[in-house]
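User: Please predict structures.

Assistant: First:
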Amino acid sequence: MKQLFELLTTMVKYLFLIFSLISQMAKSQILQPFDDEKCQYFSYTIKGNEAIKIEFLDNENYNYLKAKKVELNLIFNSENPNLLAEFKRKFPKIFQDSCATFPFYEDNKLRKIKSCNVKFYLVDKKSDFYIFKMSGFEISGFLLFNEKTKISRFTDNFPQILENGKYIVSFDNGLNSTTINFYKKNEKSYNEYELRITPRFKIEEYNLYKNAYGNFDVIVTLSSKSLKLVEEGKNGKKYEFDKNNGCNLKLKIGY
């Protein structure tokens, strides 16, 4: 009887220890990163053909990875007339009769888009890609035309093209969403993902670094500023962003 009592006592101690560990883990998951109501509206959606991994980082880990960042390309937004003349000589059928026709893949099918209402400004060339800035009614972003494959791809903002086109990444603080586009070259085409974050969160800083497997991971800082009342009078209330009050997050995105 005494042995049975000791056995039951030991089992109770182990069960208490297990429940304590589970409770601590649950609390840590809740507290990171949502330790208060400031971050409760953070959400995102992912569209891609492979799984990605998102991790929340503390300042120490973020700074450690940031120290390994690679240099990114300068961003151009103005048209380059000489580059445009070169492109038209090489590909005279793309621009005809005030319209532009670009082939691209959608749902693994090769399609062609013909547009006469969108302006295409050739702003840069990186590796094999001519980079066009698009402008039109409810249309913006960048089109990347590969001079070897003659296939186009799209990004929401100016693309970072790394390792001769093996990686293509863009970061955009848009009106409808904060977006990260990521392309990684495979044997035939590209694996890709599109991460869309609720627009109240904006990208403050972004970097890329090489992980232990030789692939690029993305690290970003996001912030959502609270509003504070600065003036109240006959014309109503006036608010501005409170730089000292809001939600700040640091993310690592692996693909």
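Second:
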Amino acid sequence: MNNIDKEISRIERSHDYLWSVRQDLHTRFDERIKPHMVDSVLDAAASGYEGRINRFRKIFIEKSAVRDLEALAGSRVDMALASVIAAYGVRAA
């Protein structure tokens, strides 16, 4: 079973151009923020970049995600979630 998990992880990394940034952010923030929120914030930060994500775009995406995650980690979750949702223009259906 462990080999299957490693293979799935390898395949996911090969299709996720931000896998190294994602790993770093999880290392930094998983103790303070739920892991799925870390992924959501990173994906939202990357959503504004069209085309292939190169080395320089990764830097800007990571900076944006870190700023948003630090804001989430340093405030009440319910208020921070509302501000992140509002910042990215998500509206209730």
